[in-house]
What does this fold into?
Amino acid sequence: MEKSEAVDVVVFGATGDLAARKLIPSLYQLYRTGHLPEGSRVLGAARSKLDDAGFHKFMESDARQHVKDADFEKKSWDAFKAMVCYEPVDLMAQASYDGMAERLNTEPDRVRLYYLSVGPSLFSATCDGLAAAKLLNSRSRIAVEKPLGRDLVSAQAINDKLGSLFKEEQIYRIDHYLGKETVQNLLALRFGNSLFEPLWRSGHIRDVQITVAETLGIGTRGEFYDRTGAMRDMVQNHLLQLLCIIAMECPTGLEPDAMRDEKRKVLRALRPITGADIGKNTVRGQYRAGAIAGEAVGSYLDEGGVAEDSHTETFVSICAHIDTWRWSGVPFYLRTGKRMQEKLTQIVVNFDPLPHNIFTDSVNSTIPNKLVIQLQPEESISLKMMAKMPGGRMKLEPVELALNPERGARRRHMEAYERVFMDAINGNQTLFLRRDEVDAAWAWVDPILAGWEDSQDEPRTYVAGTWGPARSSSLLVQDGFVWNEES
Ligand code: BG6
It folds into this structure.
């Protein structure tokens, strides 16, 4: 497809929270920055009975809050708005798809991206409805949000359905973490430099820690979240994808399958956690009332849509191992939670301590090197090293080497969902998941979920505004380590 060729983007779930916060603002930014060609159309579809003007109002009031002032221009916004129309739909009723077909089929040969920002239970009916309305052809693409299913079996059923109507190269399984600038920077760091490669292995790296901590609770998504939990919402997808980017071998190129082959190898080399190892190597928690930055917050059990005796986990930590030569004996600690002390998304690669310390005068001299890749609150990559402090004494202090690209005033930082749309529109699947990756991730997660369900144990509680249950710290202490909690 020519980059200047107009496209149609259909957003199902267009009045939802994700559409307001991320999808519509990202489409606008793509238009504003010249990545959504003139003449393209965006069709919002959702249950609300709105007309085009009503949807524009929704976009303006809600979505506008999520566009930074510096990234908003009235002229381009008006031009973007003129590209957007809306169709009220009942995804279970064929008449809805037929109505949509009337609008869309005025341009039958365009690349058309269907973006499903709806629950996975609606994927199948939506695909069937589109097919029956003859809205699918070889230029159609479908983008689906995670979690894809709730276990391997249900994910396979969804993938079978998608596979019956679309070729694999038409399916875009989204993990927006892969669209984050720092994740791509990490690829550049690992595979655009020869420096790290010889050290990137067991024998030089002591452990890897991946933390995705949020201060937010579950917002208005109580019902969804209570059925889902942190393992399915975050670990099966975002955390495992980050782990893959850290652990994978260098792909032969940046083509989609080259990357995805390497990620899949990592997922398949993850050592299964089953039986007694579930209690030893995993922790699940649920928050109780507490305070974050001085503000009181309630207990998970009091959130709207949550069952009063819910066992759903809002926190998970895991000690994982990858059974390959490269990673033999290196623990990968994963941790994610809602209502934690700070918003912090970071990957910490801890290098081995000095084999022999000659700077015995210096209290800090034994702090091992670490590479900290931070995605949130600020994006940065830094290498913590030791250096001599000026002065007469041979005294070492930790110093930080920032490995961040120059951010000139003109360099706008692209949001993850902008990249997701841009790549799907341009047909680049590198940052989307292939079916076998999703299967491999579920195959690893399923036994842990089943073990938790079978056990009589309830999730461990933690006070909102902390770093999770105490057991999460002992998961590392038992191996002689501690979580990195500095941003
Ligand atoms: C989503 C989860 O995939 O990621 C949410 O469903 C979570 O529960 C969100 O809050 C976090 O994304 P980000 O980009 O804000 O870290």
In short: The pocket of 6-O-phosphono-beta-D-glucopyranose is lined by residues 214, 233, 345, 376 (CB under 6 Å).
